[in-house]
C-alpha cells in the first residue's frame, strides 16, 4: 500500500542582502573655546557702549594690554561686549565666539562674545559678575539695581557730555567707579575687579558675587519723594 506524499508549501524567495552601511562619520569639528580647568566659579564680564559709537572704549577693551589684565589680574573667563555701531578690531569677532587671543599665553584664556544691539541688555547684565559701561543713565541704573560691580567709562570725545555728571555724582557717593578716558581702562579694571589668589578660589556662584567693599548698594527707588515734591509745590498734604 502506497502513501500519497503531501505537497510541500512553496518556499519564499531568498531576500537580497542588506545594502552596505556607510562608515560612521566623525563628529563635526566645533570652534575652539577656552577650557576652564580649575574648580573656581566662572567669572563673566559684560561691557556695553550703548546705542551709538564709542570706538575708543571698544578698541581699548579689546587691546592686548587690557585683555591680559582681564584674564590675569581679574581672572575673568568670559567677556560679552555690546559694541553698538563701533567697529571691531578683529573681523573674526563679528561672528561671535573667539578664543584666539594672541596676547594671552597659556594657561590664560578668555572667551569673547560680541553683538551690536539687542532690545534689552538686562539678561546679559544679570548673567555677568561685573559690568563696564558708558555713562548712559539707563545702563548705569540697570547695573546698580542688579547689584553689579560697575566701572563707568566717560566718553571724552563728546562735546557736551552731560552724562558725565551722573557718573561723577554716583562715583562720589561710592556706588560705582568712574574714569574719564578709555586710556585709563587697564589700570582701572585691575583696581576695581582685580582678585587675589585666595578670593578667586571662593565657592560663590557666578553672578551672585558680593559688591567690592568700596561700593555701596544703590538704595531702592522711592516714588514718594517726587510725589511729595509735587504735593509740597501744590500746597497739598504729603504722602506718609
Structure notes:
This protein is an alpha/beta fold and 240 residues long. The chain is built from eight helices and six strands; from the N terminus they run E-H-H-E-E-H-E-H-E-H-E-H-H-H. Strands 3-2-1-4-5-6 form a six-stranded parallel β-sheet, with helices on both faces. Helix 2 packs parallel to helix 6.
Summed up:
With 240 residues, the protein is of the alpha/beta class. The protein has eight helices and six strands.
Give the end-to-end Cα distance, rounded to a whole number of Å: 122 Å
H/E order of the elements? EHHEEHEHEHEHHH
Strands, count? 6
The portion of residues forming beta strands comes to 5-15%
Unreliable parts: 28-34, 197-209
Q: What is the topology, as strand order, of the major beta sheet?
A: 3-2-1-4-5-6
Rg is 30 Å
Mean pLDDT level:
80
Q: Number of helical segments?
A: 8
Q: So what's the overall shape?
A: elongated
| Backbone structural class | alpha/beta
* Largest beta-sheet characterization: 6 strands, parallel
Helix content: 25-40%
Q: Which terms summarize this structure?
A:
single chain, 240 residues, alpha/beta, 27% helix, elongated
